Amino acid sequence: MNAHLQPTGSAYFITKETQDQERHTLSVLVDNEPGILARVVGLFSARGYNIESLTVSETEHGRRLSRITVVVIATPKTLTQIKLQLERLIPVHKVHDLTAEGASLERELALIKVAGSGDSRAETLRLADAFRAQIVDATVESFVFEVTGKPAKIDSFIALMQPLGLVEVVRTGLAAISRGPQGM
Amino acid sequence: MAEKMTGAEMVIQALIDQGVEHVFGYPGGAALPIYDAMFQQDTVQHILVRHEQGATHMAEGYARSTGKPGVVLVTSGPGATNAVTGLTDALMDSIPLICITAQVPTTLIGSDAFQECDTVGITRSCTKYNYLVKRIEDLPRIMHEAFLIATTGRPGPVVIDIPKDVQFALGDYYKPDLDTLRHQSYRPQMDGDAAAIEAAVDLMLKAERPIFYTGGGVINAGPAASEHLRELAELTGFPVTSTLMGLGAFPASNPQWMGMLGMHGTYEANLAMHDCDVMINIGARFDDRITGRIDAFSPGSRKIHVDIDPSSINKVVNVDIPIIGDCERVLSEMVRVWRSKTNQPRTEALAPWWKQIATWRAVNSLGYKNSETIIKPQYAIERLYQATKKQAKEVYITTEVGQHQMWAAQHFHFDQPNRWMTSGGLGTMGYGLPAAVGVQVAHPDALVIDIAGEASVQMTMQEMSTAVQYRLPVKIFILNNERMGMVRQWQDLLHGSRYAHSYSESLPDFVKLAEAYGGKGIRCSNPAELDAAIAEMLDYDGPVLFDCMVEKDENCLPMIPSGKPHNEIILPDTANLGDIIDEKGRQLV
Predict the structure, then answer these.
(1) What is the ipTM for the molecules in this complex?
(2) Distance between the two ends of chain A, CA-based, in angstroms?
(3) 8 Å CB contact of A85 and B120
(4) Is B115 a catalytic residue?
(5) Which of 8-37 (A) contact B at CB < 8 A?
(6) Which residues of chain A are within 8 Å of residue B293 when distances are taken between CB atoms?
(7) Could you tell me which residues come within 8 angstroms of residue B454 by beta carbon, excluding any fewer than 6 positions away?
(8) How far apart are CA A123 and CA B239, in angstroms?
(9) pLDDT (tens digit, 9 = 90+) per residue, B394-424?
(10) Which long-range contacts (CB under 8 A, 24 or more apart) does B536-540 make?
């Protein structure tokens, strides 16, 4: 095949990305209106940004405001663009980069179903206790645990449950807030 | 004071309250209530188009030439999807449009009803903002908010999708004030940061090889912005270049004018951009047609960037002094600060720079070899320009997309803003003819010419019918080379002259076509007869299709090939285009 007919890598001149990618948590305050989530998600897909995790819920009912917590992995240059592009959306009030702005709290909730009997059941309960997981459902052959904490804590709890009869997991995604007296 | 009316009547009333005089549209089932309300009043005139894409480009031409928003009215389903190209075009070029799309009744939304489509879903990424109006109570607010969003900040298109039952519903119409609008978060920053402007002027005062690089933002900021730019250029004595979108903001007849920059810009503009020590970007966005290879873009300069859109800053090129604000306000502040610091022109300090520029200018990069037997496309535009200069009328130029567009940008010269309408960002073939119709609607007494190619113009040719219906004497000046010339040029450059589908084997007879539409057709293929033929076109009081048969294989030069820096520009006397681009360059567009 002739060289000139080979598929092209990119239509534009791409300078090689030299910056390292970082994981950042952004808090986005938006008008709670139909389509707002589609706007935010559409922006990420249209511009090729990666979403690690995204949570959204109304936070101030009276003012019809929602707060979106989105975790992205990107270079510092792209992170700046993500923030500016989000701010450009008409219903977006504020975007805060919690990772860049200093100390922040990050929490996640997971529901974890584990099935088993005999010795593994006792071991499951012992570990759940160590992780302060609540039993929210129990049958003679299964448990559903509720565990909250940093994502890393949930990761390790899930890893421990794996050999003990892990059936399924559901996670809420990240909720994050800055430390100290200041709000968004 | 609230007044009871139907949703359809509210739409018309809001247009009237916003000072809208013309709407470009096409009726259909879901839009009938609005059309009925339109029928019963005389304040807003409706221009019936032949295709909804035409309506959007007309509205763009209208907006670009007046500074007012263009208004489009289309029906649901195909009406809305046909408008998508024009909406995207307006978003890319920051043109304020209001596009009202009708929708099936709210009770039928989601049922795959006849002529239903997810208009807000489809247009979300090609509008600045869009609305689906589900309740009559929201309609007055949304109508007015849409105008605010479309016209302020970085302008753009806004879609208002109105279901048929909302058009019929009765409600209270009111004109909301700014503070009661829903989106309190939307407040564009107009004034530039004073410290940044001060720092920019300080940098400019020390510059030895400065250049103003201006863009469409200066045009969008209104005629006063162009005035301030001229004043600042005069005070500083700096050379000025502009993007395709910014042509006319600075007069082409001024000795400080360098011509357009970028892929098909002049040698002097591109070399000055490459070698400058201070670049002042005003309302441009470092588009890839401008920068070429990013890592070799103006390597030695400190950069100032004025833009109303914060996301334009550092998006492509990192700058030293960003100034977020409206070009008009920032330019006027720059003038004031400059005056406060000096009243001496820095003629001496800039002399070596101007001397260098003179040597670049001497290359005459827009030169071409004329012919006595064949009309050269550059010659055709030069003669057209000379002929229009003698006209007492205001002259407005629109273009399609391709070689003719670049030749028009190079060889037609503009001394005023808002006279040049072209599709820059999206590069939409078929833009020019309907845009010319829109310009002529706004300026009935002006001379409006679409400089076209025979391929592009056929994409929206049916709007000739609109021009004839409304007696709009637009002139469609077709540079007919029987090729998609720019595609053909790239195939020469990159693909071994294998002309895959880049020529037209069955072109219409444009003279007969013009006559079939009820316009006038003129054909010219002899350079000696060109002036007389152009005069005949300009004298005719009605729409004209001018079939200008030009050299078939002329290349549009100068050209910076993709992946090359500014100082590796191809000049007209380069012998063999096919040998210039290496393997890597072939992958670029």
Answers:
(1) 0.89
(2) 58
(3) no
(4) yes
(5) 8-13, 15, 31, 33-35
(6) 13
(7) B478, B479, B480, B481, B482, B504, B507, B510, B547
(8) 78
(9) 999 999 999 999 999 999 999 999 999 999 9
(10) B537/B475, B537/B477, B538/B387, B538/B388, B538/B391, B538/B447, B538/B475, B540/B473
